[in-house]
Each structure stands twice: as C-alpha cells, then as structure tokens.
Amino acid sequence: MTIKLTGNTLTLQDINAVAYEQVQVIIHPDSKQKILRCREYVDKIIREGKVVYGLTTGFGKFANITIPPEQIDELQENLIKSHATGVGKSLSIPEIRAVMLLRINVLANGHSGIRFETVQLLVDMLNSGVHPSIPEKGSVGASGDLAPLSHLALVMLGLGTAEFQGQMLPGDKALKAAGLNPIKLKAKEGLALNNGTQVMTAITALTYLRAERLAKVADICAAMSLDALLGTIDAFDPLIHKLRPYKGQQQVAENIRILLEGSRIRESHRSCTNVQDPYSLRCVPQVHGAVRESLDYVRKTLEVEINSTTDNPLIFPDEDKVLSGGNFHGEPVALAADSLSIAVAELGNIAERRTEQIMNPALNRDLNAFLANRPGLDSGFMIAHVTATALVSENKTLSHPASVDSIPTSANQEDHVSMGTIGARKARAIVDNVSSILGIELMVATQAVELRTMKSSDMMEKVKHIVRKEISSLEKDRILDKDIEAATKIVDSNTLLKEIKLL
Predict the structure, then answer these.
(1) Of 48, 202, 452, 456, which residue is least crowded by CB atoms under 10 Å?
(2) Residues 182 and 234 in one domain
(3) Residue 157 lies in domain
(4) Does 325 reside within a domain?
(5) Residue 421 counted as domain residue
(6) Dihedrals φ, ψ of 80, to 5°?
(7) 310 in helix, strand or coil?
C-alpha cells in the first residue's frame, strides 16, 4: 500500500497507517506540477525584486525590514535555527511520523512556494524512517507550531537529532545512514516548513483515533458492570431513546442491548423489585452518547484541518497574488482538542462510578466489599479503585480548556494565540488515564460477573475469555500493577473490538 498525497484527500485512517504501520507515501504527479509551478512564481518574484512578506522581508515584528537578495537564503536558515527552541521530551515516533505526513500534505497542495526537491527530502525521510527529535513543549499554536516544526526542519539541514533504526543520531549522520543528503534552504522554504498546525493536529488526530475506540470499549465495560450489578435493561429500551433522538445515544443503547442479549444473569432477576438503577448504569446511553456526539465534532474538524494549507504567506500563481493571512492560527484544532479532553474525561468519570458500585457492599447486591474473597485478610480491588479515582481527579485538572488562555507574543504582533498544542497534549494524557480507568472497570466487572456463577451473554462470555487470557481471577491478594497494565492494553487496542462488533 502506498498513499498518494494531493494535499486534500488525506484521511484519518491514512494517518494511522503511516504513523503505526510505516505505510509509504508519494507525491501525486498532479501535486508535483502544482509545487513546481508555485516555485517558479516565487523565483520570478525574487528576480523582480518585489517586497513580499516572508520572501524578501523579515518575520513577525521584523516584517517591515527588507532583506537584500544575497541574504535571502541565510534568512531562511536563520529562521529555522532561531525558532528551534522546544523543550521537554520528544514526541513519540508515531506522532513524529504523523507530523511529517501532515507537513508533506500541506506542501503537496502547491501554495507554499517550496522547491519540489525539498518536499521530496521530507518524503524520503518519512519513508526511510528518519524521525527528527521534536520536543513536545514550546508552541503556543499561533503562527502554527513554530518551535516543534523548526526541530523537524533542522534535520533536513543536517542539524538537530533524529532517530534512525532505533538509534539517536545527529541530523547529518541520520540522513547519511539512510542514504540521504541535507539541503540548503532557498527563499520562502523556511516558512513553508515551520509555519502551520501540524504538530497539534497530529497529536490530536492520533489521540482522537484512540478515543474513538475507547468510546466503544466503554460500552463493553458498562454492559459488563450492568450485568455484574444485576441492573435492569429497561433503561435501554429503544422507545425511550426515540424520544431523545441523538444518534450517539441511540447507538449506545443498542450496543448495550446487543451485548447483553441472552444473558442468564439478566434473566435471573427480570422479575425483581428493582425498577431503577443509579445514574452511572441507567444513564450510560445519555453520557456515552453525548461523548460520541462530541467526538463527531472533533472528527469533522480534523478531517478539514489535515487537508488544509496552513502556512503564510500563501502563494496563488494563477491569480498572480501572494497573500498574507492567518491560516496558521490553531484555534479550530485547539477547540477540538479541548472538546476531546472534556468528552473522554466524562467516559472516565462515569466508569469510575460504576466501579464504585461494584466495590461498595452498600450499593451492590451480595458481593463482598472490594470483591475480596477473604474480607479483612484480603483487600481485593480496594486500591485498584483508588488508582481509578486518582486518575479521574487528575483528568478534572487536565480538562480545563487550554484554548481559553492567550499570551501575546512577538512584541504583540501575535496578540492572540490558541494554545492548541497544549490542548492536544492534555487530551493525549486524558486518553492515557481513561484507558487505565476503563481497564480497571473491565477487570473488576469481569471478576464480579464470574462471582454471579451463572453465564452472561455470549458476547460478555467472549469478553471474559479475552480478559482471562491476560489476567487471572483474583483468588487472593497479589500485586496488581501488571494486571492493570494488561487491562489497559486490552482497552487501548483493537483486542476487544476485533471480536466484538459494535455501532
């Protein structure tokens, strides 16, 4: 499989394939022609000595300073060197690959004025596995992700550091090891490489794809908890959800009905006196469904952003125009990342409450406190639940929107910034936490269902089998951190969804 990049046909699934499966990419021939034509126009501007922002002037507050022709190439290299100010740990290899892919896709749109050989080097680096080290902190998401994208561009100049075949190498040595050569930047090329939203978008896109899986796995965990707690299925009747016809809510209700179809545990208490369950059980469609509605908004935003041109200035050869605008501003992604954070945090909030229902003998029916086989001597899952509550609490802090903050930069030239990259990193941290929260619920609910002695539904029995392949039943106290890690891995992967098909 090879993905042809046009600048406007990339999908989220393509990003996942390139990030995690090392799928190769090429520039579509039509896009190559657009890139070449745009570059010819840039060269014409330089020859004619026109004053154009970013081509023959300084940047930001220095936009009013004209640069002599003999210093234009130095200007572009200085831009990359001076802007490579990121701090903190590097992005992960999948995130770096996603950033590289998105940057190439922007350039493939043919409005950035870059030379084709420069774009091709970035393609060759991605396909060869030369992964520039990109510090995750230092972007305010205003002129895009200037600092982290400059670290990406450094390696193209033979500077910086990069990972290649498991080794961290100086940029020039990493290129040489892959059979590639560094480049010298020409007019506009520095801006074409470091101006845009690709870091925040890459992190948000990969985080979104994980969140999309979590939303479905959360339904599985909820169904297991509902059966373990002898909950009533009436709250999932389609008649209820037709009267509040959110698509997400209806999908979740149907998923729960499908998951528990034929459960003998459910049949055993169908005529009991319990007519209403706590909200964490009864309102699963309303809460999980609302999360899905928020995720739909995030997806729509990302699908636009990954196929947008976000550098500045933008070059329109056919119209004989070079226009300076603000497509680099990260606000659309910042708001989407914050929405993603809040939505996924809610999956964790309600999951922890379901776990509490199972843990607490005052709330469940006939289950030992903390599912301990020998209460007092054994603590059971007591502190696993505490871990879940700690993660939920942390998520409440992380969910505070980054996008409501703005600190003016560049001598007030950039007087409103998005903080979108901070929002993206927070969303990633929340997805990490919720994967563990759901993993703990899945582990606890599986044990509780087994204690009911009767069989659950065929689907739930299949889920139990998947869990038990990795995590044995808790007969007496043992060290649980590796169990939680295994449960988290089950949740944060396609392990369950390969076997359990859901809406």
Answers:
(1) 48
(2) no
(3) 2-196
(4) no
(5) yes
(6) -65, -45
(7) coil
- Are 132 and 225 members of one domain? no
53 is catalytic: yes
- Spatial separation of the C-alpha atoms in residues 224 and 211, rounded to whole Å: 20
The CATH number for 395's domain is 1.20.200.10
The first and second tokens of residue 293, run together, are 């509605």
Neighbours of 239 (CB within 10 A): 7
pLDDT number for residue 56: 82
| Position 252, amino acid | V
Dump the DSSP string for 468-489: HHHS---SS----HHHHHHHHH
> Which residues are bridge partners to 26 per DSSP?
4
Global confidence as pTM? 0.97
Six token digits for residue 206: 């990969």
Token reading at 281? 């059980």
Task: Report helix angle 331-359 to 382-398, nearest 10.
Answer: 160
CB-based contacts of 421, cutoff 8 Å, min separation 6: 136, 139, 140, 141, 145, 148, 199, 200, 203, 330
Q: Do 50 and 151 share a domain, yes or no?
A: yes
Judge contact between 117 and 183, C-beta under 8 A. Answer: yes
Using only the alpha carbons of the chain, give its radius of gyration. 26
Report the DSSP beta bridge partners of residue 167.
Answer: 164
Structure tokens at 394: 């942390």
89 and 163, same domain (yes or no) = yes
Residue 428: CB atoms within 10 A of its CB come to 25
Do the Cβ atoms of 319 and 38 come closer than 8 Å?
A: no
| pLDDT of amino acid 238 | 98
Closest CA to 426 of 34, 226, 137, 72: 137
pLDDT for the residue numbered 41: 94
Mean pLDDT per segment of 10 residues, for the chain of length 503 residues? 96 98 98 98 89 80 82 91 98 98 98 97 98 98 94 98 98 98 95 96 98 98 97 96 98 98 91 86 98 98 98 94 94 98 98 97 91 97 98 98 94 92 98 98 98 95 98 98 98 96 95
What is the predicted pLDDT for the residue at 264?
96
Residue that the structure tokens 């990069």 belong to: 162
Question: How many folded domains does the chain comprise?
Answer: 2
Annotate 69-129 with DSSP letters as a single string. GGGHHHHHHHHHHHH---EEEEPPHHHHHHHHHHHHHHHHTS-S---HHHHHHHHHHHHHT
Answer whether 488's CB lies under 8 Å from 390's CB. Answer: no
Residue in 53, 246, 279, 297 annotated catalytic: 53
Say which amino acid occupies 344: V
CB atoms inside a 10 Å sphere around CB 8: 13
Positive or negative: CA dihedral 149, 152, 155, 157: negative
